[in-house]
């Protein structure tokens, strides 16, 4: 079942975020970044063909049985924007990500999220689109990420920047509530559980997976569980 994109959803997400005491991370050894969890409308079936060449993007990454890395059949109703990063980037190349990046000097997390959304996917929103913030997530690669939840106000016209983004997807919020989501696995390198969020035919890991899980738990369900101790896979540590 898809989630209706309506004022009731907008008001519920805003109220759940406003009622939450946000967990912040202050670590002078880490750089500050922001990501945009942008809520848009979408049509069922508009994504039955993956616009990205999976064989080029996946770069030999092993896939679990029954998954092939394609992001298809995920649209419909209320959705969020998810990017497949370009494989030639210097850091976190070819990974799934929400639009976002490092804060410029003197820039707020909200301004950074809005700027990166515009630069990466061609969507320009104002501060009145902000519904609230999720908890900070500290990454293994040296960042503290602050997720900013935005209301897009419709489907929006997307124009991904080819230098940074291979493709951008409208992923239905119902995908976050699949019965097989979330998944947790163990790795020998850490005592913390690695979180995996199944979307389409792929698995989304932390930090993006942790942000999406908290959006489901807090934004959609009003559940205040922490996600900052959920682990990233080793390939995302650098």
UniProtKB/TrEMBL annotation:
<keyword id="KW-0464">Manganese</keyword>
<dbReference type="GO" id="GO:0046872">
    <property type="term" value="F:metal ion binding"/>
</dbReference>
<dbReference type="InterPro" id="IPR020084">
    <property type="entry name" value="NUDIX_hydrolase_CS"/>
</dbReference>
<dbReference type="InterPro" id="IPR000086">
    <property type="entry name" value="NUDIX_hydrolase_dom"/>
</dbReference>
<protein>
    <submittedName>
        <fullName>NUDIX hydrolase</fullName>
    </submittedName>
</protein>
<keyword id="KW-0479">Metal-binding</keyword>
<dbReference type="InterPro" id="IPR045121">
    <property type="entry name" value="CoAse"/>
</dbReference>
<keyword id="KW-0378">Hydrolase</keyword>
<comment type="similarity">
    <text>Belongs to the Nudix hydrolase family.</text>
</comment>
<dbReference type="InterPro" id="IPR015797">
    <property type="entry name" value="NUDIX_hydrolase-like_dom_sf"/>
</dbReference>
<keyword id="KW-0460">Magnesium</keyword>
<dbReference type="InterPro" id="IPR020476">
    <property type="entry name" value="Nudix_hydrolase"/>
</dbReference>
<feature type="domain" description="Nudix hydrolase">
    <location>
        <begin position="30"/>
        <end position="195"/>
    </location>
</feature>
<dbReference type="Pfam" id="PF00293">
    <property type="entry name" value="NUDIX"/>
</dbReference>
<dbReference type="GO" id="GO:0010945">
    <property type="term" value="F:coenzyme A diphosphatase activity"/>
</dbReference>
